[in-house]
Each structure stands twice: as structure tokens, then as C-alpha cells.
């Protein structure tokens, strides 16, 4: 069990340490220390068999200078603590940009300057290496007209005597916890060093870090498995060599410190384009440095980039919000479609979704993503029609710096890169030009991308879901869409039928949208039976999008609790003022289309024909429309056009 002596000048630090120790398997001596007695107290701890001491600032410096030789972990002030102190000082001084002086030992601080601009203060540091330089540093700060000083006990005491505002350099639970972690590692290293080398290697090989042990001359004696992987060298080729021959990037100043018995931790080292957080712990035996334990924690570059990309993706809204629960419909067609899409979710193959505008193609795409194993990863939606053809390639695949005039410095990641490990939804795929189609085909085949202006490829793991409101087979016949890409995209296919082919869903959606907009507008409205009947008979060529917008409109303008048939009839014709049945055909999954047309008549003949059929069917518009071969909406428009009476048998038709 590790035996650690914790020396602190303030009771608050002791209390924080006690809460940390409860979670540790270690014997810890808590000492409320003073600078006058710190060396004596440290010696007493050594005599009691404590392996390592934790201290900070002046007291840590005095222990090092004492020559006692006990391993020392110095508490460093974290960036969070520095930022909090700056904020507190600014609040205390009530000044727009106060001038703050940080005074203390050089090894106590992380990089201070970067926090000054963030908090809005002017920062100057007065860092020392010897206790004797502490008070002169305070005098220099006062002469430099600092608004407030920040330092330890000695600095605070002296500053108060001078009448200068001063804040105590507090250590939080985070910095103290880090010190205990380092102390435990040092104790472990010391204990292992006293045992046989083979036993030590068996232990360090289970570490998540790359661990290297050297003797006091810097010659490698142990090189664990993670070190082999990190530095691409077998242990048999590393042992017996100087550590700097394997890792030449180790700072010589850090090596000098650790050879003197000083611990170096949290330093950044880059080797073969991989960034490491490195810790160097001296092995002290009877007051002499007999070797060094080097531990390297790889900061995986790809993982860091992926984390940053994920944050960027979520900030930009590249997420799928909808699930199958958000797809409303009771028709057999929709139930069957949802069942099929749910099965597709468990597969990684490409999906091609076809259907008219407004049928909910992206809703299905998002639902498939959210039911898949990729649900916690990005969902990137791309409207191919909204991107000019000359920008489509660079937006999808990205570009390197200098790829073209106006290219951003450092280049840009493409949307496929943003979608890595997730799903990319290519809406209106029919609008992609032929060159873009070639690039997309290669991405699907090779599973990698090449940025514009680059000469190397990047592997990606992206599922593609494409959607179209056009008949791709017709485009293939016209030479506007590649047949090989079509078959690559159409591995799994979904055709979403228009509302007019699943009329039982119209009122389900109407009720859902009515509840939604009523809640938003703080209303409680419903549709009358006549209004519901009229809406269920309307063809809704804009599909769900048109229906949703229409419901929003009438719920907004209705002054009555019950929306009348007259209100619906009046505004439904404005929803699509042109004869959509003449403009749009129905897109079928087999590629065929059908356009509803009225049989050709002269206007006079058409008027006579409609009046005759209304008389024949006693004003039954459904029967009349069926015999004419048109929709009831088209019939109603013609009745209004010819000013035909809407009353038959005393009732409105």
C-alpha cells in the first residue's frame, strides 16, 4: 500500500485532500505545515516510512533544497483555478481590465497568459526558483503598479503589510487529485524497482500508458508493450539504447530536471505526428536517483479530431431529430412501408427513397438512422439541388488549402467527412451533375474520399441514403443519370405513396397537426365533419407539407372553435391555385406515371355536361367527378368557374 505524506499550508487544502483520499487505497499522512517547520516535518514522515511527499510552492521548494531525497510531487495550479482567480480579482477590483500580477514558483503554474484575454484582464507573471526571490518579486509587481497580486501565504502576508490587494492562490480538488495520482505512480515505480525486473515488466505491460524505465545514465532497461506500439520499436531493439535515440523529441531541460530528482509531468511531446502527454518520475533510492520512469499517454490525433468534428456537427445541427414514432399514418401502405424501413435500419446498405415532394422522405431517412447502430453518430443532410454544380464537389468532399482561388486557409472538411461513422442523406439526388455522380460512385465503391486539390485518399465509414422526387429511370434514358450509380444507390428502396393514394391517413395527419398548432397558438379548435370530409377528398398534390401548411393557416385564422366547411372550401382552393392534376403525375415505384385529365370538351359543352350530370346524380359531386374522370376538387373549381348552382333539392352540394 502506498504511503503518502500530504503537506499543506491551509486547512482548506487538508479538507479537500481528505475527501480525495477516501477513494484511494493508500495510507496518507495529513500535515498542516508551515514554511518554518516543513523540512523537519518531511524528515519525520520519512522516518515513519512514508514513500512520497506532496507539497506546493515555497514549501515544495524548501523540501527540494533540503537534500532529504524523498520523492516529491508538487501541486500545480490548473488552468481552471487560474481563470477563477482572474475572474474573482476582476470582480473584486470592479475595473474593466485590471492589471494582475501572479507571483510564485515557476513549476506551480500552467500557461497563464492565454486566460488573460478570455477573462478580460492584463496579466504579468513574476516567477521565481528560490524562496529568497519571493519578496523582491512582490516589490517589483508593486513598482509595476499591479492592481492586485495573486500568490501564496508569504505573498499575501507581505502584500497586506504593503496595503496592496492580494488573493490567495487556492488549489482545488482537481489539482490536488492530480498530485495524488502522480504520487501513487511514483510509489508504484519505487516499489516495483525493488523487485525483479521480470515482475516489473509484467505489471507495466498492463498499463494503458507507454512506460519506459531507464537507469541513471538514460539507458533503457524496460520497454513495455504499449511503448512498442507507440514508438514502433520492439523491446529487444530498444533495451540497451539511450532513450533519446528512440524518442529524440524529449526535451533536454526536462531530462536534466529528472536526473536531479525533480518530477516532470504534464509536458507535451510530439513523435511521428502523434501527440503525447508525458510524465517523468525519478526513482530515488536512499537519496540518489537510480533511474527514471517515463510514461507516455497518447493523445490520439484522430480521436481528438473526431471529438471536435462531433461537437461541430451538433453545433451545426447535423443530427437526426425524428424517429418512426413521428411518422403518422394508419393505412396499410404506410404500415408496410414503416415495417420495411425498420428492417433497412439494421443494414448498412445504401437506401434510395422515392416519392413526390412533401411526402416525408427525409423523415424516413432520419428514422432509419435513429434506429440503426449509427444513431449516436452524425446525420448530415445535403440538398443536392441547393448546391451549385461548381460547388457540389468541394462541399461534399472538401478541399485542401490553395485548391482554388478563394479556398480557405487550411482547407475545409467536406460533408462526407463530417458524416464519418454516421449517415449522409442526399436529397434530390437527381440534381447532381454527371461529374459529381462519378465522384459519388467512387466513394460508394472505394469507401474513401479525396479532397479537391489533394493527392491522397481518406477512408470513411458513411451510410448513404438518397432521395428523389423524379423518375431516375427516365433520367437514365435521357443520359442525365448514371445507370451504374442508380443500381449502387437502389440496393434498398422505399417508395412513399402520395396522400391521394392513402386517403385514410389524411385525417390522421390533420388531427395531429391541429393538436400541434392549437397548442402553439393556445387554442382548442377542431374541424367540422363537413370540413373533414372535404379535406379527405382533396388530392393534396403538395402532400404532407401542403396539408401541414394548410392546417396551420386555418387554425391561425379561425375565430371559431370549430373550423367550418365553408372556411376550408374557401382557402383550400388558394392552397394550389393552378390545376395540379395537370402539372404533376404520380411517381410510382415502377417508374410509370399517371396524370388525371378531364375529357376534352368545349367550354359550353363542358358546362352543359357538368350541369346534366349534377342533375343526374342529384348534386352528388363524387359521382359526377367519377363519371367525368376528374377529382372532386377539379370539379368544384369548374363549378365555380361556370357559376353553376350549388343547391340541389334544397341542400348545398
Task: Outline the structure in words.
The chain has 653 residues and is α/β, with parallel strands linked by helices. The strands form eight sheets. A five-stranded antiparallel beta sheet has the order 10-9-13-12-11. The termini are far apart.
What radius of gyration results from the CA coordinates? Answer: 38 Å
The biggest sheet, with number of strands, parallel, antiparallel or mixed sense and barrel status, is:
5 strands, antiparallel
- How many angstroms separate the termini? 93 Å
Shape: elongated
The total count of strands amounts to: 26
Oligomer kind: single chain
Number of helices: 29
What integer is the average pLDDT? Answer: 83
Estimate percent helicity.
Answer: 40-55%
Structural class: alpha/beta
Uncertain stretches of 5 or more adjacent residues: 577-602
In spatial order, strands of the major sheet run: 10-9-13-12-11
Keywords: ATP-binding, Nucleotide-binding, Transcription, Transcription regulation
Protein name: PAS domain S-box-containing protein
Domain Sigma-54 factor interaction: 327-556
InterPro entries: AAA+_ATPase, AAA_lid_NorR, Homeodomain-like_sf, HTH_Fis, P-loop_NTPase, PAS, PAS-like_dom_sf, Sig_transdc_resp-reg_PrpR_N
